[in-house]
Task: structure prediction
Amino acid sequence: MRQAEVETAPDPVDARLGARLAELRAERGWSLGELAERAGVSKSTLSRAERAEISPTASLLNRLCAVHGRTMSQLLSEVETEPPLLVRAAEQPVWEDRASGFVRRSVSPPHSGLRGELVEGRLAPGADIAYDRPPVPGLEQHIWVLEGALDMTAQDVGHRLDAGDCLRLRVWGPTRFRCAGPGPVRYVLAVVLP
Result:
């Protein structure tokens, strides 16, 4: 069999995520074109993400979350089972954006009765992630660097965070996370809904 004829099954999380994205679009009665215009993403990219032909990037998910009024953790939790009260380290959901070198561990997954959550972020040396808007305007974030160095930009103001430093802010506009290197950076992101 030629290589082009070999089909690989989509990642199960990507498949559930794609189905949920299609459901959210259908709930609003939007066509792919309408959602593409609202999110600033091409119709083909949205279609491929909904069919799990591609693994969506953090930037793409952020744009879709903003349109649907939910955080990335909320969206990802919707494709997982109801989170238990105690989440053992080995059971914490991990999502990876291979294109950017970003690994996201949901340390304390969102819960419908709570406004806060904890996320561990890891960026490879040189990794650079830009979000054009927060998923929820006014989202409160506390960024605590555990290892390495992080350059974080919010509202056109740059911040250099070294191990042990913590930045707290409300997010209203574009943000950027960049691993300042030379090694990877690991940080905790506390997210609190307004």
About this structure: Residues 96 and 103 are 4 Å apart (CA to CA). Confidence is low (pLDDT under 50) at residues 1-6. The beta strands are 94-97, 102-108, 116-123, 128-131, 139-147, 149-154, 157-162, 166-171, 175-179, 185-192.
